[in-house]
Amino acid sequence: MKICVVTGANSGIGKAAAEKLLRKDCKVYCVGGPEGFPGDGETEENSRGIAVRICCDLRNDGEIKRVIGAVEENGVDVLVNAAGVAFYGVSESIRPSDIADMVDVNVKAPLVITSALMPKIRQNRGTVINISSVTALSCANPRGAAYGATKAALTSFGRSLFEEVRKQGVRVINIHPDLTDTKLYRNADFTVTGDFESTLFSEDVAEWAVNALEARDGMCVNEITLRPQKNIIVKKEKDRKLTGPGIN
Ligand SMILES: NC(=O)c1ccc[n+]([C@@H]2O[C@H](COP(=O)([O-])OP(=O)(O)OC[C@H]3O[C@@H](n4cnc5c(N)ncnc54)[C@H](OP(=O)(O)O)[C@@H]3O)[C@@H](O)[C@H]2O)c1
């Protein structure tokens, strides 16, 4: 049974990835906030996977240590760094505490967890999947500058890490999704349309992430960028559709 660790497993993309891995009969350490873990509510049929919930606040060093300690003993085949938080607006409107949250959850936690688990991942010739963002690839992310900076850091980390561990058989995959219909936009004055042509869904991102695990031995799908066909967002207060550069 493959051992997987998924952060942000109680919502959105992380939850969809955890559910896909459970359907592949993996044991999944589901790390995240207090509510909404896979298996809450209706039981998933056709799943013989085992979900182990680890409820924690990834801004807290002690709690990160607890996560690492809980999974370490068993070895790790797949680590999905999906937890993330975003605050949008012109840079001067973003509070220092919001910046700290984004740095802690989007950068520090995945770097610390990945580094601590690497001996166990290497032992199993495993895979690290970073759920980064298209903002990591953009030249500029107006009204998402700090968030984009954290995602660029995560992508940079993933690229460098791959060069360090590729000869040891470890794969590192950076996923760069665009606008996806999740709770991520709760701190934004815009949201996704929900329309299939201008919105990605958590299952889309999770599917491509988990598919990349099926690459033959000796090959790594390093980076995946996913974009909806159209670039449309909705202003929350006016329910007005806008077009323009992606903010996600
Ligand atoms: N949605 C998009 O358009 C989009 C696009 C590109 C990249 N991404 C990235 O995709 C990843 C998943 O986000 P999502 O879109 O699926 O949004 P989401 O539904 O809000 O999921 C974010 C997850 O991160 C967890 N999390 C946030 N802060 C945490 C903390 N301090 N401690 C522990 N867990 C914490 C959340 O737990 P709670 O629910 O308990 O807060 C939740 O499980 C993020 O890294 C995000 O940056 C999203």
Question: How would you portray this structure in words?
Answer:
There is one protein chain. With 248 residues, the protein is α/β, with parallel strands linked by helices. The protein has a single domain (3-243), classed as Rossmann fold. Helix content is 34%, strand content 19%. The chain has five helices and ten strands; from the N terminus they run E-H-E-E-H-E-H-E-H-E-E-H-E-E-E. The chain has helices at 12-23, 61-72, 96-123, 145-165, 202-212, and strands at 3-7, 27-32, 50-55, 78-81, 127-131, 171-177, 190-192, 223-226, 232-235, 240-243. The protein has a seven-stranded parallel β-sheet with strand order 3-2-1-4-5-6-8, with helices on both faces. A three-stranded antiparallel β-sheet has the order 7-9-10, with no helix packed on it. The N and C termini lie far apart (35 Å). The mean pLDDT is 93.
Provide a short characterization of the protein structure:
With 248 residues, the protein is of the alpha/beta class. It has helices spanning 12-23, 61-72, 96-123, 145-165, 202-212; strands at 3-7, 27-32, 50-55, 78-81, 127-131, 171-177, 190-192, 223-226, 232-235, 240-243.
Which key terms come to mind for this protein?
248 residues; alpha/beta; binds NADP nicotinamide-adenine-dinucleotide phosphate; globular; single chain; 10 strands; 19% strand; 3-stranded antiparallel beta sheet; Rossmann fold; 7-stranded parallel beta sheet
